[in-house]
User: Fold this.
Amino acid sequence: MSPEIIGLISVVGLIALVLLRIPVGVAMGVAGLVGYAGLDGWHRALNRLGNTPFELSNGYSLTVVPLFLLMGAVAARSGMSRDLFRAANALFTGRRGTLAMASIGACAGFGAVSGSSLATAATMSRIAIPEMQRYGYHDRLSTGAVASGGTLGILIPPSVILIVYAIIAQTPVEELFAAGLIPGLVLAFLHIVVVWLICRLRPDWAPPTPRIRGLARLAEVARMWEMLVLFLVSIGGIYIGLFSPTEAASIGAALAIALGFATGRLTPKGAMEAVVETVRTAAMLFFIVIMAYYFAYFLVLTRLPQGLVEWVQEMGFSAMIVILLLIGFYLILGCFLDALGMILITVPVFLPLVIALGFDPIWFGVLVVVVVEVGLITPPVGMNLFVIRAQQPDMPLATLYRGIVPFLGADAALIVLLLLFPALATWLPGLLF
Amino acid sequence: MAWITRAFTLLACVFLVAMMGIMVLDVLLRLIWNAPLFGKVEIVKFLLVLTVYFAMAETFLKDEQVTVDVIDQVVPVPVVGFLRLVAAILSFALLALITWRGVQPALDTLDFGDATMDLRISLIWYWVPIIFGMGLAALAMLAVIWRLVRGPRRQA
Assistant:
């Protein structure tokens, strides 16, 4: 059997294991081990398996993961999300659909201190949905705004998914963080446009809310100062070259803790919970990344990615057709796999092809994250929808699914914009680094 | 088993806070006195290994590894229970193999006297938390397997 066929069987086997409820990390380890043994014998496969945790954990750049996770976990327990919602509400006041627009604005703001889409959706759904329900907003609008707004968490830096992509694709984290910012802001704007359109077509879905005026409005807007300080110091520090990503993450985490205690809104219990949550999430992520690293090493040995490149060249597909096919593949896969699994399984296979076609790996990283985001809000594995359902158990799942549909248009528009204007993702890193 | 894994998770928390503290101290020393902490990278990498691997077992014991559970909606409950058992057995086997095959390269670093560049920390100290953490996670999965096998009998 040729190495390429062994590689292909392993990829299919991996997807089958994941769908059979085997944890993603374990599935990658098992598929990689069996495939590697088939290729090069059990002795080498096991030796490599034993060495991989040390090789990967020895990388200094990985320290960024737990520290940015800590910053987000502390921010979630410091009441920052409620302040962001109130500030965004004051920014959009006077328009129909203010609260839905504020939810998206607050999600974007929270995404700037938290690297997780689920954390953003979970935090904002607790605050924004009850407020929208109080003013009689339609459930489809309120849940759709929060679920789609939550996806901004993995595009606007810091982003755990972008860090994982950086590790797998061996691209600089700081460049990916710069690349995600403008598309993230554009997506937030597009989501707000969707809310505006919904309110134009169905004004009864968003009854008017009290208008905030003058100094009161200014005072409310000023509530986002904590988020701004955290973002400007940590991510801004990376952009101006003051900090490395790891330094920025530690400064951001320490600052989030200091601000939380200084404002009296972070309790010692809350801080402890944040630290415990962080180490557990980091351990879980590391195990998956270690196994993905092992699986990717095995795939390189099989020459499957190179085989894919040669096959595409032989078929004579244009670069754009290949990218469109990949987007279609990701959208289908997103119905069954979670974001992290998709990135870890597919990037080692597709990235060599994408680079061979002349695309920028940084641009591809942003594109993949945007496409993977769609999987977070589409059934059956729409993790953001499940998170909202967990917070709002009385809400029918069908309402959540229907609510998200208009917002998918915003994601589609961003994908088209990224294809037509790659500079949306590549301009800022080119300018800064 | 739960209290053992919890104890090591709490230790991991201490190492995470220490890692953050050392990084902040290094940045302040660098920005104020242009005197970064000597050997910072090596200390932080060591603390990272301690943080991640000491918390590993609890993520397995509490079933916190990322799992795609779409199949739960299409197969009967006993089949889901069987798949959970298969997942636990595979997890145990993989973790046990990683632990076992990590021992020899760890001992090799000791034999060859491998150490870090700046602080001359023996690399065995980086290996120990990895092997310990993976081994503890394997034991945690044994406990999960035991729980899954015993669970239905207790209910009966």
About this structure: The mean pLDDT of chain B is 90. Residues 85 and 149 of chain B are 8 Å apart (CA to CA). Chain B touches chain A through 58 residues (CB under 8 Å). The two ends of chain B are 24 Å apart (CA to CA).
